[in-house]
Design brief:
The complex is a heterodimer of chains A (110) and B (341). With 110 residues, chain A is an alpha+beta fold. Chain A has four helices and three strands, in the order H-E-H-H-E-E-H. Classes of the chains: A alpha+beta (110), B mainly alpha (341).
Chain lengths: 110, 341
Amino acid sequence: MENDELVQNMLLELRRGTLSIAVLSQLSKEEYGYSLLKALSDQGLEVDQSTLYPLLRRLESQGLLQSDWRIVDEARPRRYYVISTQGKAVLAKLKKEWSVMAETMNKMLS
Amino acid sequence: MNLIDKYVAAVGRQLPTKNRADIEAEIRSTLEDMLEERTQGKGPADEATISQLLKEYGSPSEVAATYKPQQHQYLIGPRMYPIFERVIRIVIAVFVAGSFIDLGIKLSETGLAGAGFASVLGGWFGSLLGGSIAAFGNVALVFAILERTRVAGKIEKEFKEWDPKDLNESETDPDRVDLPDHIATVIFTVLGLAFLNLYPSVLSVAFQSNGSLVTIPVLTKTFFRFLPWINVLGLVQIGFNGYMLSQREWKPVTRVLSILQDIASMIMAVVIMKTPGIFGVTPESLATHGLGEAAEALAQVFNFLPIIVIIVIVVVTAIKVWKSAAGLFMVKTKSPYPIVK
């Protein structure tokens, strides 16, 4: 029981660390919050909306994302997010780091 | 106003005004998307479905908290907390020491028994508790303000720019007993008790008057009425310091005993000093020997002596109590391996 909780907490930290990269990687095309949530989930990354929405705002305030309110296909107004030029540059660097890190970890854990 | 409106408004109330409308709109839009998926376009959702959705989304406070900037999630942040902790210890220690001084002075007026004693003790305890809480609150308030000013940023910068060269030599073990200090205490206590019990007349003022040597004892019979109490406390002190010399290490119990002993000594000293007629050197006693203005000046010194002694004793006790209390609350961890120097 105690171990389960420990594992859950560690997984939470792991996910938190990787979430920014995951979000940036999925926003090469425009998505609104809920559609992004579904896209991440479809690829196996379950994210809580209470984590995702503040993260989107933070990434936008850091200049890595752009957003605007729009009505698409006569639906309700939604806020659409897309990666910015700065975001693309940052993502490229993060991808490199991630590859190195993943390789190192795989070596350590194999 | 439907449930979603109420929910969005409840979240909005807890958000900073700057982004409120925007965040509210986004939450509403998300909730409606989620709801649409649940009903799969089969008309408007019923209240039970909406209610279930909102429960899953989280309480308004929880949701609002995720949108707040991290640095305002706490009253005193991690960069200021260590300093806050240090300051609060000092402030509380000084306040408690001050309270004991106040208690000592009050008890010197009422004595150590009777209704007056009980009422002074009760009142003192109340003000100690209330005052400690108020002191804590005030320090926390000051730090909460500092947390939101440039001071916190400056401290953070200092943390980042620290230099290993600034490190002090490792401090001595706070629990180690200071041998010279305890030896001196034992010696002076033995000497003091010996003089008071065996040679009380040594403590006297001597001067020439009309060609003959006159001696007036400094301490009167009134003072010596307290001698049994002084002896008890003195012997306790000798025993305690002797024990500490054999132990070589402070433990929580011995620190508490030391504090109690210091406070008891202080209270007794204040009670004695506040008792009228303990000094034999007075204008009256000097007048009987036909002494003039010089004697008046000497008598004046003895008039002020009690208050000076009280101040000195209280300050010394406060310092000793503070040191013991600091040692008591200091967290000490032992190295798992022997340190080779």
